[in-house]
Amino acid sequence: MNPATEYPLIGIVGPTGSGKSALAACLARRLGGEIVNCDAMQVYRGLDVGTAKVSPEIRAEIPHHLLDVVEVSQRFSAGQFQDLARQALEGIRARRNWPILAGGTGFYLRTVLYGIFEAPGRDEALRDRLNRIRERRGPEVLHRILGRRDPEAARRIAPRDFQRICRALEVAHATGRPFTEHFGTSERPLTGFMPRMYCLNVPRPELHDRIARRVADMLAGGLVDEVRGLLARGVAPDAKGLEAIGYRQVMEHLAGRLTWLEMARRIEVDTRRYAKRQMTWFRKERGLVAVAGTGDDPAVHARVFEDIAAAFGAHPLWETVRARMNQ
User: Which long-range contacts (CB under 8 A, 24 or more apart) does 264-272 make?
Assistant: First the structure.
C-alpha cells in the first residue's frame, strides 16, 4: 500500500436481493462515504420500483452517483458507465470521502476496475439480420446461437437480453474471437486506488425467500403503475430500460398475455435465474472477499467494517473515520 498515491476504494457486490444497498449505506454512514451505483438498470430515470432504488430519504442523507443518469429509451454502454464511474471516484477522492461501489452488475464492476477493450463499432447490417431473427423466432434462438459461438457469454447473458446477445455476436463476428476472450485485454485499468471488494454470499433457500418477498413488495409498491406511467409519457414498449426483469413481465401482463399471478411468478423465477448468473460471474471475479450473510444483518456490518479497518487502518484517510467515531 502506497498512501501517497493510492486511495481506498470499497466495493459491495452480490446477487439481487442480498442486501447490498443496506450494507453500502451502513458503511457510508460509518466511514463518511459516497456511494457509486454499479447496477446497469438503476442508471435509468423512472425505473425506481422495479430496480429497488434506495429511497429519496437515503439519497438525501448519503451522496449517490450514477442513479438516474439517462432516459429509459436511451442507449447506455459499459464504456459510458466506466467513464462516469471513474469521474465520480475522482470527485469523491478530491472531497476526501470514502468511495463505495455498490451493485450487482459484474461486467460494470469489471469495466471500472480493469477497463474495457476497444470493441469494434456497430455492424448495422448484422444487427438488422439478428433483429429479423428475433422478430420471427424470438431472442432465445439468438441466445442458443451465442451458446455455440461463446458458451461463457451465453451463461452470463439472459436468454431474452437481446441487446447484450446482439453485441456479443457482433464482437465475435468482427474479431473472430468469442466476446469473453476479450475480457482482461484492457489497456485502461483503474489507477490510483486500492480496491477492497466484498461479495455477499447468501444461502440459496434464504436468497430465494428474499427474492419472493422483494417481488411481492415491488408489486404491492406500484410496479405495474410505474410501467403504465412510463408508457403514458410516451416511452416505447421496446425501450432498452423496459427489457429489465420485472418490467418486461409487466409489459406482458398489460398486453393481456400473462395473468397477475403468472406475471408475479415469472418475475420471481427470472430473478432467481439472474441471481444464479450473478454468482457465477462473481465466483470467477478476481480479488473479491466473500462475506457470508445478508447486507442488512448488523453482524455482517460489523465484520465488514472490521475488515476495512484492518485493511486501511494505516492509511491517512482512516483519520477521518477516527474523527467521526470521536464525535
Answer: 264/215, 264/216, 264/219, 267/215, 267/218, 267/219, 268/211, 268/212, 268/215, 270/158, 270/245, 271/16, 271/17, 271/211, 271/214, 271/215, 271/245, 271/246, 272/208, 272/211
Domain ranges of the chain: 7-114+189-325, 124-182
For 236-246, write each residue's pLDDT tens digit. Answer: 998 989 999 99
Q: Is it the case that residue 185 has pLDDT exceeding 80?
A: no
**CA distances to 40, 126, 163, 170 from 123, in Å:** 23, 5, 13, 7
Q: At what angle do helices 162-175 and 124-137 cross, to 10 degrees?
A: 140
* pLDDT for the residue 4: 60
pLDDT, tens digit, 9 for 90 and up, residues 300-320: 999 999 999 999 999 999 999
pLDDT digits (tens, 9 = 90+) for 81-126: 999 999 999 999 999 999 999 999 999 999 999 998 666 677 788 8
187 has pLDDT over 70: no
Q: How far apart are CA 38 and CA 207, in angstroms?
A: 20
DSSP string, 204-263: HHHHHHHHHHHHHHHHHTTHHHHHHHHHHTT--TT-GGGGSTTHHHHHHHHTTSS-HHHH
CATH architecture of 7-114+189-325: 3-Layer(aba) Sandwich (3.40)
Residue type, 78: A
Please provide the average confidence, as pLDDT, over all residues in the chain. Answer: 91
What CATH number should be reported for the domain whose range is 124-182? Answer: 1.10.20.140
- CA angle, 111 then 10 then 119, to 5°: 0
Give the C-alpha distances (Å, rounded to integers) separating 105 from 11, 168, 269, 292. Answer: 12, 16, 19, 19
